[in-house]
Amino acid sequence: MMTLMMFGAVQLGVAAACVVILVPMGMAGWHLSRNKMLFFSGALFITLAVCVHLTPYFPAVSDFVTSVSSVVVFDHRISCINMVNDITWDLKRNASFHGDIKKNSSLSLEFYEKHWDWTKSPKIEACDFQKLSNYDASNLLNGSWVVVAGDSQARLFTLSLLNLILGSESDRMQSIRGDLFKRHSDYSILLDEIGMKLDFVWAPYVVNLTNLMMNYKTKKSYPDVMVMGAGLWHMLHVTNASDYEFALRVLKSSVVSLLPFAPELGMNGPVTGSVSIKSPHMFWLGMPVLINGMLNTGEKRAKMSDAMWHAYDRALGDSKILRQLGGPLVLLDIQTLTWNCGPQCTDDGMHYDGAIYEAAAQIMLNALLIESHQRL
Ligand SMILES: *[C@@H]1O[C@H](CO)[C@@H](O)[C@H](O)[C@H]1NC(C)=O
Ligand SMILES: *[C@@H]1O[C@H](CO)[C@@H](O)[C@H](O)[C@H]1NC(C)=O
Ligand SMILES: *[C@@H]1O[C@H](CO)[C@@H](O)[C@H](O)[C@H]1NC(C)=O
Ligand SMILES: *[C@@H]1O[C@H](CO)[C@@H](O)[C@H](O)[C@H]1NC(C)=O
Ligand SMILES: *[C@@H]1O[C@H](CO)[C@@H](O)[C@H](O)[C@H]1NC(C)=O
User: Fold this and answer.
1) Which pLDDT does position 98 carry in this prediction?
2) Is 205 close to ligand 4, i.e. is its CB under 6 Å away?
3) Quick one: 292 and 332 in the same domain?
4) 211 with 328, same domain?
5) 303 and 365 co-located in one domain
6) 220 with 344, same domain?
7) What CATH number has the domain bearing residue 356?
8) Which are the contacts of 280, defined by CB distance < 8 A and separation ≥ 6?
9) Residues 6 or more apart whose Cβ sits within 8 Å of residue 285
10) Looking at residue 73, what is its pLDDT?
11) Are residues 52 and 82 in the same domain?
12) Ligand 5 site: residues with CB under 6 angstroms?
């Protein structure tokens, strides 16, 4: 009896300590910048883990813990963002295909059916990634301004995103496909039914992306979601990885200056509680794996060598523009997607099957889901 009471008193003491530690940390956290938030969330996680283990002994704490546990989900979200690109492919011989791909290589993409899903592992399953239906995607993007800027990879990504929202077989999609594929041009569409504006901006070089960011900054008008990626043109026409890295660093600083912790933006949004300031969600559309022997011109095969590709890939890492290296942009990992799907998934060693960009669009939407919950 006596020991039980003492035990209860100890629990009470520890629980009180939890409250004392957690509340100020939580409050401080919400008013700090994102990086500091990340630091705090680790500390919170440990503190809360202690509390959670004690709650069965002390019911009054459980309500409290439930209300704070949303803070801990933060930690979970960071690791989920890091795993969102973890896709596995399943290629099956297309039973209804009877063409001869030796005679007509543009049919080769039909030879395999490509199915993909997030890798099955307990950690990834805990993130609950899902392929969004067109209804869910519309809901998520309702009322937003989405910009996709870059080279032909970005154009293919735009196409997949529109396919998802409008349905790939719809009449509207048929006509969009024609307009979107006018070479080297911009494209813009307003989807009235969900109040969504989507711009594709032709920006083959990183410097074009930087100029675009500067434009938004001058106009003080920013998209809600921005996906960008460029590199292949630079590799073919400039063929200098350190110059590419330099361009990426310049882009990085223009992106950072646009984000909400920049003083300029503080005036647009509510300043109290920095989390509530609306900031654009930014993504980097990675470069595909190039299959040198399949590239369709001698110039491409000579300049876009495997060694050059690796140098460009290193330049991307070294520029620190990606979130996983402390930068502002979340990677849509086209490199891993294309590597895992393999040569069966491309007919020119550079542009890949629609399934790749469909997966990339779903990855972006899942990352958006994770990020937007974080802001609620
Ligand atoms: C190859 O296949 C494509 C797509 O089905 C078709 O448009 C083209 O005419 C074919 N080419 C030849 C030489 O048969
Ligand atoms: C399978 O082959 C048929 C006939 O060529 C084609 O219409 C269909 O698109 C192919 N399926 C895939 C997934 O490529
Ligand atoms: C989009 O949002 C508006 C109002 O915010 C709502 O009326 C409409 O039903 C939504 N549409 C979809 C497809 O979610
Ligand atoms: C992109 O930048 C290059 C190099 O500055 C320039 O020549 C080209 O006109 C730009 N293209 C677009 C579409 O802005
Ligand atoms: C590559 O670009 C860098 C930075 O712009 C420049 O200093 C260097 O001279 C270039 N190298 C070559 C071989 O052109």
Assistant:
1) 85
2) yes
3) yes
4) yes
5) yes
6) yes
7) 3.40.50.1110
8) 222, 223, 224, 225, 226, 258, 259
9) 148, 150, 153, 154, 157, 227, 228, 229, 332, 334, 360
10) 55
11) no
12) 240, 242-243, 246
Domain final position from 10, 29, 57: 57
Amino acid identity for residue 144 in this structure = S
pLDDT of residue 372: 77
The DSSP-derived string for 94-136 is -TT----TTT-GGGGGGSEEEEEEE---HHHHHHT--PPPHHH
Query: What is the total count of domains within the chain?
Result: 2
pLDDT attached to residue 148 = 97
Task: Provide the pLDDT for residue 101.
Answer: 76
Range of the domain at 14: 2-57
Q: Are residues 32 and 155 in the same domain?
A: no
> Residue 276 corresponds to which tokens in the numbers above?
């509530």
- Ligand 2 near 96 CB (within 6 A): yes
Ligand 3 proximity of 138 Cβ (cutoff 6 Å): yes
Q: For each successive 10 residues of the chain (376 residues), what is the average pLDDT?
A: 46 46 42 32 41 47 47 68 93 88 79 94 92 92 95 95 90 86 87 93 97 92 94 97 98 87 39 48 96 95 97 97 92 96 92 96 94 59
Q: Which ligand is nearest to the CA of 196?
A: 3
Is residue 110 included in any domain, yes or no? Answer: yes
Residues 165 and 37 in one domain: no
Give the pTM: 0.78
Ligand 2 pocket test: pick from 93, 96, 115, 358 the residue with the most ligand atoms within 8 Å of its Cβ.
96
- Residues 139, 22, single domain; the answer is no
Provide the Cα torsion 154, 155, 156, 159; round to 10°: 120
pLDDT for residue 74: 55
pLDDT of residue 11: 52
